[in-house]
Design a protein that fits this description.
103 residues, mainly beta, Immunoglobulin-like, 4-stranded antiparallel sheet, 50% strand
């Protein structure tokens, strides 16, 4: 399993800004290694975020997303103490799920 995501969710009025840093190598399948062989593609394909169990964001990514991607989005109606969960699945079937509390 991959390293934990760093999730920060900060409320300001009726909006909460969520910032997520995901640890993932994100290989595009275009680069060659020292021996000249193509490094196989390995990247996050699906990202989902939930607020107290309700889906608030879904995204489909491809090989063009950078290594250790950063994602930021705003959730309306979230308040301090609420839970924000972020899940991802990559093209090799690996998954990661982490949760943060809104502050």
């Amino acid at each position: 399993m991959a390293d934990p995501m760093r999730i920060r969710a900060q409320a300001a009025g009726d909006k909460t800004t969520v910032r997520v840093l995901m640890a993932h190598e994100m290989e595009g399948g275009q680069r060659k290694d020292a021996a000249g062989k193509i490094v196989p593609a390995w990247y996050i394909q699906e990202v989902t975020a939930t607020h107290n169990g309700k889906t608030v964001l879904t995204a489909e990514w491809g090989p063009a997303v950078s290594k250790n991607p950063f994602l930021q989005f705003v959730v309306k109606g979230a308040k301090a103490g609420d839970k924000i969960a972020v899940n991802w699945k990559d093209n090799k079937g690996d998954t990661r799920s982490d949760e943060a509390t809104v502050s």
